[in-house]
Every structure is written in structure tokens, then in C-alpha cells.
Amino acid sequence: MQRERIEKAVQAVAQYDYGTSTSALFEVDRLINETHGDEEARSWMERELAALLGSDASLAARQEVCRRLWRIGTDSSLDSLVPMLGSDDPRVVGAACYAIGRRPSARADELLMAAMRRAPEQCRAPIEHLIEDRR
């Protein structure tokens, strides 16, 4: 049952855009709170949210997913964030950096350094700041 609720909530977030109802976001937040301590449910939720990052969801939806991954994300979602770090849109790069922000991980550090070497000039600032903050 929990997986069905998670799938339904994340599918609703995929439809989110600026100026639309935030009820789907509140449902995901509710599920995050309800699954505290349930590693299996959290892992499932992280996978579902991370998968949304590779979809054609709006920038607003992907930014909101990154906010949720900041709260519950692990190294498991890093692979989904790598393409965002390589974007030529500073807003996309900033959202990915936010998701990684408080994750103490050698793998995240490596991905950030690699992203910094490839990042377009206009997208380097959020990556640079995150690398500095992590030191």
C-alpha cells in the first residue's frame, strides 16, 4: 500500500509547475514524514523521486524533487543528479547542488569535482560554492 501511495504522489508531482496547486508536494512531504524510520519505504520514495529528474517534468517539479532529495536523499540518487549538474541552465545546476548539499559523501565530492571541470561558465558558481561549503 505504501508503494502505491508513493507512486501516486510522485506521479502527481511530475505534473507540478509554477502557479499550480501544491497539494502533490504536500502529499510527498506527508509521506516523507510518515516513512521516517522505514528504510524500505524511504528507499522506494527516493528511487521514485530520482526517476522523475530524468523525465520531461517541468523545471519547477524538478526543483521541488531536489528539495525533497535534500531531506531524504542518499548516494543512491546521485546518478540521477549528474545530468542536472551538466546542464547549461544555472537553475537546474543550482537545484542539483541543493539536493547534494548536506550529503557527506566522498562519491558526491567526486561527482562535484568532475561536474566542475565540465560545467559551462555560467553554471559553475553553484558547484564552486557547494565544493567550498563541503570543505
Textual characterization of the structure:
This protein is an all-alpha fold. It is 72% helix and 0% strand. The chain is built from eight helices and no strands. It has helices at 2-14, 23-34, 39-53, 59-72, 78-85, 90-100, 106-118, 124-134. Helix 1 packs parallel to helix 3, helix 3 packs antiparallel against helix 4 and helix 7 (106-118) runs antiparallel to helix 8 (124-134). The chain is globular. It starts with a helix and ends with a helix. The mean pLDDT is 94.
Secondary structure blueprint with pairings:
Blueprint: H1 2-14, H2 23-34, H3 39-53, H4 59-72, H5 78-85, H6 90-100, H7 106-118, H8 124-134
Helix pairs in contact: 1-2, 1-3, 3-4, 4-6, 5-6, 6-8, 7-8
Structural class: mainly alpha
What percent of residues are in strands? under 5%
Q: Give helix and strand order, one letter per element, not per position.
A: HHHHHHHH
- The number of helical segments is 8
Please tell me what the overall shape is. Answer: globular
Count of DSSP E strands?
A: 0
Radius of gyration: 15 Å
Please outline what is shown here.
With about 140 residues, the protein is mainly α. Helices cover about 70% and strands about 0% of the residues.
Features:
single chain; 135 residues
